[in-house]
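To the team - zinc ion complex, inputs and output below.
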Amino acid sequence: MAKVKRVATKRTVRNVKPAKRSVKKTLRPTSKKKPAKKAKPVAVRKRTAPAKKTTPLKPAIKVDIKELDPIRKCGPGTSVQVLLKVVERVDGKSTNHLVFFDKYGWYCDHGRNCPAVAHARRQRGRRVNTR
Ligand SMILES: [Zn+2]
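Output:
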């Protein structure tokens, strides 16, 4: 009697376990995802609200402009009239620009559309234009 019982339980356990597990594994993730998706938008909304407050703080851009000697940097024959080193600091990251002014106008080593050009113009543009 005892022998028979042992065999019976072992078999049922063996047969049931693998079948049930594989079915549950595929079913559970999908059933769990649905309520999670509904809950997420609420959490995201709460997060985006303070994020909007931080965006106006974006003008934490600090710009340091140093005037360099164009003749020293570019040689005595240079047509560069103004040479500015613009250090742009955004969120602790600093970017160095070299902004030139010559007869063709202002330009940065990153190109004419570089924001450093605008910074340099604001600081030195008037003086150069009244020349
Ligand atoms: Zn630049």
